[in-house]
Amino acid sequence: MAWNEELTRLNEVLAGLYFMTRDSLRVVDNAGLPKAHIAFQDKAIDNWHQILLEADRRGKVADVIDAALQDYPDDPFLLQAKEGRLATVRGPDLDQDLDWQSDEPAASLEKIMGRQSTLLPISFLTRGMERARSVARIRLEKGFGSGFVTQNNLLVTNHHVIADVTAARSAVVQMNVQKSPEGLDLQPVEFRLDPDAGFATSKADDWTVCRVDGDANADWGWIALEAAPIEVNGRVIIIQHPAGGPKQIAFYHNLVTYVDERVVQYLTDTLPGSSGSPVFDDQWRLVALHHSGGHIREPGTKKIVFRNEGIRIEKVIAGVAGMG
């Protein structure tokens, strides 16, 4: 069939999920497309245009969507694409969603485009890279999790990632699991944990703190355990190891939707393997420890919502203080 709006939107979604050409090859293979018939490109948006052209010609667009859903089973845009509803995704309604803050014609202005400014100082990027150094991938006997190191060489993660001393002894903390600007894998640096030197956990609040065996702080710094306020309609950023892969950052679509004294709920993207990641506000202050997501209940209500959730960092701070 002819190229249409649905394929245009799908092209954009897949280019955002698989921005390296080599990342797209697995989807092509799982969808049963012949690689020899596809003119792969370096630029993601062009690369996926070529892949979808071939998939459309062979009637296998649905197979491409199913293959991508194997990697991102909860992605709302892929789920809409599977139902054929992706073309209905729209941008903001100028009459309802935007506040121009002026009676002058919009075309004559350079303005803040929405109710909240997205302008940030360029130092924001530097501070984010500093925080990212202390984020770790945790290799477990079965699978991966995320975590971060704080002062005094303590690792912070979820209870459901490291539940007890036995799990801590078998875990491997990996720093520097990320890509270079050229897309190459950097060399990981590994540490073991020493629960005999310090271990605390809370199943109820889903956090674990354990001493690192070695001086991780010397080269990888730390993320300070300091409480910061967070409110509904704020923004949160998560540095994580989704699906146990290289370090990534969830940088947009990150609205806070619920806050109480125990949890923060938000729309920021995560995947399995992201559990234990630090959740920051838009000033890079630590506000929560990510621990779950999907169709979850909003506390104090019977409402089931599609969100992600973190434990307020105050719960972890109290636990560390109790370690002595």
Task: Report on the architecture of this protein.
The chain has 324 residues and is of the alpha+beta class. The protein folds into 3 domains: 5-88; 132-220, Thrombin, subunit H; 236-321, Trypsin-like serine proteases (Thrombin, subunit H). Helices cover 27% and strands 24% of the residues. The strands form 2 sheets. Strands 9-8-12-13-14-11-10 form a 7-stranded antiparallel sheet. A 6-stranded antiparallel β-barrel has the order 1-2-3-7-5-4. α2 (21-30) crosses α4 (61-71). The longest helix is centred in the N-terminal third of the chain and has 14 residues, at 44-57. The protein is globular.
Describe how the helices and strands are arranged:
Elements: H1 5-17, H2 21-30, H3 44-57, H4 61-71, H5 76-82, H6 123-133, E1 135-139, E2 144-150, E3 154-157, H7 165-170, E4 172-175, E5 189-193, E6 199-202, E7 207-213, H8 216-220, E8 236-240, E9 248-250, E10 256-259, E11 263-266, E12 278-281, E13 286-297, E14 304-312, H9 313-321
Antiparallel strand pairs: 1-2, 1-4, 2-3, 3-7, 4-5, 5-7, 6-7, 8-9, 8-12, 10-11, 11-14, 12-13, 13-14
